[in-house]
Fold each of these.
Amino acid sequence: MCPNNPVLTHHISSQFNEELQDVNTKFMSMGGLVEQQVANAIHALLEMDATMSVDVQFKDNAVNQLEREIDEALTLILARRHPAAIDLRMVIAMSKANTDLERIGDEAAKIARIAQSLSEEGGSPRGYMETRHIGNQVRIMIHDALDAFARLDAEQALRVLHADADIDREYQSATRTLMTYMMEDPRQITRVINVLWVLRSLERVGDHARNISEQVIYMVKGFDARHTRIEEIEQKVQR
Amino acid sequence: MCPNNPVLTHHISSQFNEELQDVNTKFMSMGGLVEQQVANAIHALLEMDATMSVDVQFKDNAVNQLEREIDEALTLILARRHPAAIDLRMVIAMSKANTDLERIGDEAAKIARIAQSLSEEGGSPRGYMETRHIGNQVRIMIHDALDAFARLDAEQALRVLHADADIDREYQSATRTLMTYMMEDPRQITRVINVLWVLRSLERVGDHARNISEQVIYMVKGFDARHTRIEEIEQKVQR
């Protein structure tokens, strides 16, 4: 796992190295798992696959378990190793990003619950195209944010921030379309609102991928990129 | 601020004491601010007070600024002081709870934006009673969670977890009522959906207050209460 990550190879204590490697590996597995959970939840919704929607809800337990294990490992590293400089920033960034990964898992489970009830009701008359499109984009965002984390790539993290701005616009537009449709055919309100909740969840997933990317920038560049205009972040990253 | 907090008075280094005191004071101010932001956002919605809704959105900047300052102070404490045992748990709990406070601030700003657009449209025909009721409850939850944090009171934190379970039920019930209303009077869909988003935000605020309470239990009792059945937490807290 990430053999070129310079943070994970520079320690004098090989024990420290190993501990940081282990938690990093676990963090990356958790990232892979939640990425898959989002993909499966969207698949379950689009294909009305009730079995898969149950499976996603069940697997959220594994995500939760990983969150606990990662935080426990990070606490032990803080207590025993007193990391400094980029090591400390990596521990802090991983602790924050761990919360975001778990929340992405929660959103995937929510989408899967809605997929299950929609498949029992025979699906929604609208909103699948929007779900597929925004769903694909946020999956790519999660993937890119994790890749940026693994490779300590602040430029890639920056691209995720840009992608999140696109998602927000597309989410607004999809919401307006679905609201217009509900007014035209009020009998479908319940089912279409379910799709609105899914889109909202996907938009939240995009926000979490952005948060993870902000942590990558903090880890690599040492500055707090939260609540900062993207042009300002750009200048600092590319300096 | 919290003169009886035993964590903040037991250190041999008075410098360390002071740093932990300072960040704790800042954390409590941030808590007070976001509690007020939620109260004001609800007030702005219920009273159609456009000025207040603008004010809440503006003040979110102050919340964001506090989030950055608190995380920066916590990182310095980790780097310089190498806290252990309950000190370390307090730093970690504050770092996690800091994120939750900032997200509560985000939800308050979202509610304020909706309040602003609803007041321009002349308000919603329904949903104010539900908003007032759930809004009051989540405000109390934030207050109780912060109080539990300040007093290291795991039993009080446990009461917040119970309150969150109530909120989730009431949120489900309010959502069903509003959906039924929309089907009866589809011309009001846009405005009623705005109230649905507000209720959703309030439900999220309740989740964040629960997260903060879980961190209190972790800090005081040393076990990770996340993703755990409430009966099991109860047993461990009351042991």
Amino acid sequence: MTTETLDRPATATDADAVADEAAYIQIQQFYARQMQLFDAFDAERWAGTFTPDAVFDLPTLDRPVRGRAELAATVRRNRAQAVRGGEQTRHWIGMLDVRPQADGTMHTRCYALVYVTPRGGEPRVQRVCVMEDVLVRSRGKWRTRCRLVTRDDLA
Amino acid sequence: MTTETLDRPATATDADAVADEAAYIQIQQFYARQMQLFDAFDAERWAGTFTPDAVFDLPTLDRPVRGRAELAATVRRNRAQAVRGGEQTRHWIGMLDVRPQADGTMHTRCYALVYVTPRGGEPRVQRVCVMEDVLVRSRGKWRTRCRLVTRDDLA
Amino acid sequence: MTTETLDRPATATDADAVADEAAYIQIQQFYARQMQLFDAFDAERWAGTFTPDAVFDLPTLDRPVRGRAELAATVRRNRAQAVRGGEQTRHWIGMLDVRPQADGTMHTRCYALVYVTPRGGEPRVQRVCVMEDVLVRSRGKWRTRCRLVTRDDLA
């Protein structure tokens, strides 16, 4: 884990602060589309939902993924694997908590499920994770600047 | 599959368009209630969440279900089956993407899960699906005019 | 079951009434945070999301849990159990239906899933439930005054 490299501010935020209603909806819509692009292996458009300098960290990576080119490459590897494996994967988030920050960013924390369905077979829940993002808004859109995913099975 | 019979417009929509916040909430509320009516086998009220001329297509049907009488009959068959089988089914949607159209309709695309729980037993995820609707608003309510469900195991 | 002790009004509500959009978002945010506090075993802050006189009923309890001290004690028991069992539990709600009442409270009905992940193992869906709350708003916050959870496997 390399969380020390992430630019998540160390300052505590008001435990009771919530996003205003419009922002909360925008962020729900943002994640719905981001997850659908990921599962459709739409590498470039998915990478475009991150900032150019985004950092994506997972406990099983040697080092965080950095920037859109590396992010898109991850999706292309997933696509190749899915074609070989004949499985359909769906990423699903919920229990979305959004905390507005003094600098205008949003810190989100949600649960993330990964469902996998083999062709002709029964689906299964492959992973239960917690996903924490720093979101920034520019030119009318939210984008992920920083993501940390932790897996319940490795906790 | 009989998707050629569905009245989904062939024209491409702006890839970045999102529903306004109020509509997005209304549609979330609409689906929550529609799914609960379906799982409660409330045939008439569930059929009433579709337009009178609605078309519902599933890959495992010989032909799409058309109109409220046929929709309600589907629910009554489900109820009879559930009584025999002693299982409780729950339909759950998520990752809801809503795209407003020039004609005032909304095109939605979301993931749909089916959970089944036998009496006295462990629940399981029976299906992972993608659900695509055309929604129309009339007299203050959203209704489904056209639905296409695809199953990940048959993809 | 002791539902006769719950203060759920017996009067029928308009079958078509829905919460206004702002309230619906607030309640989504409320539940996201409440479930995350529960799964993090944050006993006091979780109990604080209920009214001081709250009643929480489950089919497997001899009698409903009453008040914040009893609610917090439940979380501390869960924590001790989780430490022994080495499992991570996640509570996840969806298909949230919210019905405004004449007295200013909100009656909610949603589905609730419980995912359990053993350390180093595969996750599973442990429970599928229906959760019904009476929510009240005071000092700018929603709180649960009354909760009834029913399990699909015991239905």
